[in-house]
């Protein structure tokens, strides 16, 4: 078996039809997720003046979990169902996706989040997406640590259910498990920093709504957490003698 290694990718991968299809799948899946997720926040604000209640938090968490479940499910067989630049980064660190394909995924995911936010603003009569902000009394470094820990749990779950070569039938419940851990993390971190765990999910609404306060937290935290999860699961959990798992349409990446 060849050693695990970071793969840059071949030049022809950049124009390969499979790469284009995978990027399109990531674009559409991310747009589906962000539209439903951010839309649930705006909808709650439309119905109630005070949305900072336990019921409101539960509604948003469930909406995010269901939206991510669907987004991962519809793109899983085409792109691997990342729907998140941090997940792509974790897979890149573990050598499960090439750098060339990762760049395509990142561009597609960010564009999907922007388009979803624009559509949401148009469909709601001009309501500005709220995006993410820190809760009262929450410092940037506390929020950063929270994002690191929550994203670590998310990406570790992705590795265990969708990437691990010994996952077996566990792969069939990957979208469900990934959606559940996202919803659980929102119940935990929502009151503190909104619980993003996804730079694209934070970037699209921030750009369209033009809300940039503490925005760096929602990039650095998820990337650190995802990188740690990729390194630990890939090199400490997966046995060295196990065969490398392949993404459905990316055998050329390994």
From TrEMBL:
CDD domains: MIP (cd00333)
Pfam family, one: MIP
Residue intervals passing through the bilayer: 20-37, 57-78, 99-121, 141-161, 173-192, 216-238
KW ATP-binding (keyword) present: no
UniProt subcellular location: Vacuole membrane
Gene Ontology CC, one term: vacuolar membrane
Coiled coil: none
InterPro entries in the record: Aquaporin-like, Aquaporin_transptr, MIP, MIP_CS
MF-aspect GO terms: water channel activity
Keyword Isomerase: no
Membrane topology: Multi-pass membrane protein
Taxonomy, superkingdom: Eukaryota
Keywords, sorted A to Z: Membrane, Repeat, Transmembrane, Transmembrane helix, Transport, Vacuole
Principal location: membrane
Gene3D superfamilies xref list: Glycerol uptake facilitator protein
Family label: Belongs to the MIP/aquaporin (TC 1.A.8) family. TIP (TC 1.A.8.10) subfamily.
Identification of the protein by name: Uncharacterized protein
Organism of origin: Colocasia esculenta
